[in-house]
Design goal:
Pfam families: CBP_BcsQ. InterPro entries: Cellulose_synthase_operon_BcsQ, DNA_Partitioning_ATPase, P-loop_NTPase. This is Cellulose synthase operon protein YhjQ. It comes from Siccirubricoccus soli. The chain has an eight-stranded mixed beta sheet, with helices on both faces. The chain has a single domain, classed as Rossmann fold (3-Layer(aba) Sandwich). The chain has 277 residues and is α/β, with parallel strands linked by helices. The N and C termini lie far apart (49 Å). The longest helix is centred in the last third of the chain and has 16 residues. The C terminus is likely disordered. The chain is globular and about 50 Å long. The protein is built from 13 helices and eight strands.
Length: 277
């Protein structure tokens, strides 16, 4: 089933907050969602109330080939989470080297996830170029890039428009059609932010699928280790995320209906007993 990668050319743009809240919003549409953290910062878990001292995770244990189904945590109705896991610098470098030696460490469980009927996988990638980006993008239905309405993000537009952010040469060109952009933390009162957002819209066209208002409720929700739709459902940023989720939901294949569970022997016996003369 579909894979959506949440990426960014640089850190500090709110990529992980977008990934967490979009996963939650899409689960609320009735989809079965798996949110997977591939960023060694291990921050995605914080949006779902995982305690700070809980350092267990799927990606950090990848060399031991864990079962992703057993590692997944149910964090909301229709939503499971695969935290990255706590790693220090040495462990992060060793994990990167292991993936370089054996790409199947990640490719095999990813194929299993995508083969599960009705499951939508949302992957929070590390900022900038990474081994995870190179591995997942060819499998992705969409690559959602988070930017800010600032000069630094404007400088990234040529690489996004050409597809170079996703790969060099022909590969980048082929994958560019899957790329979509969200502008985060747009301050309506800022003349500069509005001008930058308009410039992005002119440059990216239909690839720009939404903007999220700068809203203190976003940081407050993270501080409370909860999701924005639960902390401040009526705030502007929550409305913006819900709008983007609806756009993504329409762009993806319809969710597969879950087959009803077969009746238990006790249920059948009860029905037969009541029907007996």
């Amino acid at each position: 089933m579909p894979l959506i990668c949440i990426a960014s050319p640089k850190g500090g743009v709110g990529k992980t907050s977008i990934a967490a809240n979009l996963a939650h919003a899409l689960a609320r549409t009735g989809r079965q969602v798996l949110a997977m953290d591939l960023d060694p910062q291990n921050a995605l878990r914080l949006h779902f109330g995982i305690p700070l001292e809980d350092g267990a995770g799927f990606l950090a244990a990848l060399p031991q080939r864990p079962d992703w189904r057993e590692a997944a945590r149910h964090v909301a109705p229709g939503l499971r989470l695969l935290p990255h896991g706590m790693v220090d610098l040495h462990q992060a470098l060793a994990l990167d080297a292991a993936l370089e030696r054996d790409p199947e460490l990640l490719a095999t469980p990813l194929a299993s996830m995508l083969a599960e009927p009705g499951l939508l996988v949302i992957a929070d990638l590390p900022p900038g170029p990474s081994r995870a980006l190179a591995a997942l993008v060819p499998q992705a239905a969409l690559v959602l890039v988070a930017l800010l309405a600032d000069g630094g993000s404007v400088a990234q537009l040529p690489a996004l428009r050409s597809g170079r952010f996703l790969g060099n040469g022909t590969l980048g060109s082929l994958l560019a059609a899957r790329l979509r952009v969200v502008v985060n933390e747009v301050e309506a009162a800022s003349h500069l932010a509005c001008e930058v957002a308009r410039a992005m819209a002119d440059t990216l066209g239909q690839r720009l699928i939404g903007a999220i208002a700068r809203d203190p409720a976003m940081a407050e929700a993270l501080a409370c280790q909860t999701l924005l739709a639960e902390y401040a459902p009526g705030c502007r940023a929550a409305e913006d995320i819900a709008t983007i989720a609806r756009i993504l939901d329409r762009a993806l294949p319809a969710p597969v209906a879950t087959a009803p569970a077969p009746p238990t022997l006790a249920a059948l016996w009860g029905a037969n007993w009541s029907a007996a003369p």
